[in-house]
Amino acid sequence: MKQTFIFILTIFILSSCNEEKKSDSNITIDTVSNTTSNNTVPTNQLTPNLTFDCSIFKFKSKKEQADTLTKYFGKKQLATDEKFFCAFPNSFNEMQNIFGFDDIRGEAPMYDYPMGENIIRYFANLNTIDKEIYYNKYINICVDGIWEADNIREAFGFSNRLANDTEAGCLSLSKRTDKEIKSVFHFIFDGPHPKNEYNEKIYNELLPIVTKQNDRLGKLLTESYKKVITEDGGNGH
Q1: Using one digit for the tens of pLDDT, what is the confidence trace for 191-217?
Q2: How far is the first Cα of the chain from the last one, in angstroms, to the nearest whole number?
Q3: Longest C-alpha distance within the chain, in Å?
Q4: How many CB atoms lie within 10 A of CB 83?
């Protein structure tokens, strides 16, 4: 009888331990799940969202657009980067209206240094947006671009992006017309004195990697570079 009681007691204790382990295991899983969902995932680990819609972003003024850029700037989260991207200008003319300076109207909302430059740099380094969508906008803001000093220069850092993400950048560029492509390349080198060591270095770095991706782009790069360095005053003003 005593042995039977000990046997039953042993079974009861083992069953209780198993139940406790299961409960602890469930708690651990829930905790990990909650922690993961609450933490910010690094931008280079995020999967771009192909369904976000920028058409819902309508601004009553350039000031409102600039305030929206400031609000979502530097968050490094997928949702906020999408909003930042949608608020960012879609053309060179819009870039002038947000970041430039006009002799009549004066300073644009984000003309001031360093905020304007930092906003542009953040856009130039975005990795959370689908590349086709991202490069389409990047190229759009460079087409018809001319040097105006301060924030409006050097194709808003496009040469650096092209050097570091050559395949994707060239793929998007190759879908454009010769005129648009040459306009982008021209803007990269444009300035008051474009024949300089800095531009020569950029050209020499870009030419082999761009040509490797697309022969046509390499030839248009050379044409654009040679044209801009021979222009009087460089920026055509």
Answers
A1: 999 999 999 999 999 999 999 999 999
A2: 108
A3: 110
A4: 18
